[in-house]
Amino acid sequence: MKKIISLLLLLIFCAITFSQQIPAPDLKLRDQYLRKSKTQKIIGWVLIGGGSAIIIGTAISSSSSSSTSSSSDSWYNPDFSSFNNYAYAGGAIMAATGIVFLIMANNNKTKANEITAFMRLEKIPGTSNVLFKTKSFPAAGIRINLK
After folding, report:
1. Could you tell me where the DSSP H helices lie in the chain?
2. Angle CA(39)–CA(45)–CA(49) in degrees, nearest 5?
């Protein structure tokens, strides 16, 4: 009989205990997402500006070289058409990469706006002398709304 009572008391005390899961260490906070978004936005605009500058500069240089290359008395007349094609392609790739960075920055800003922090009182079952009653303790948390 003593074994049954001690086992029953052990089960009762195990039933009123509580535990919390350890949060994942790679949990990103709102300001980290905002900082990442700002950095990606700067990189995106720099790449778009650089790609546009390369395209415009190549267009200007190819139009000015075509007007000066018409003279036949020049002893050195290189053909830059393949270089111009590579410059156009490089500028277009830079601008496209910049657009991708701006899209990623927008996604990170959206994630940052979905994160909310809260603080509330949680209730846990506990014992006081012989009576069972709930105890309150403050709890802080972060909620990430996933879609």
Report:
1. 2-15, 30-68, 81-114
2. 145
**What is the pTM (predicted TM-score) of this model?**
0.56
Asked if the model's pLDDT at residue 25 lies above 50, the reply is: no
CA distances from residue 11 to 8, 19, 102 in whole angstroms, order as listed: 5, 16, 57
As given in the structure block, the two tokens for residue 73 are 């008395």
Q: How far is CA 82 from CA 53, 55, 88, in A?
A: 19, 14, 10
Mean pLDDT over residues 71-78, rounded? 55
Q: What are phi and psi of 72, to 5 degrees?
A: -90, -5
Q: Averaged over 21-26, what is the pLDDT?
A: 51
Amino acid at 82: S
How far is CA 74 from its chain centroid?
56
Phi/psi region, residue 73 (left: phi>0; alpha: psi -120 to 50; beta: rest), is alpha
Please identify which residue in the block is written with the tokens 């830059």.
80
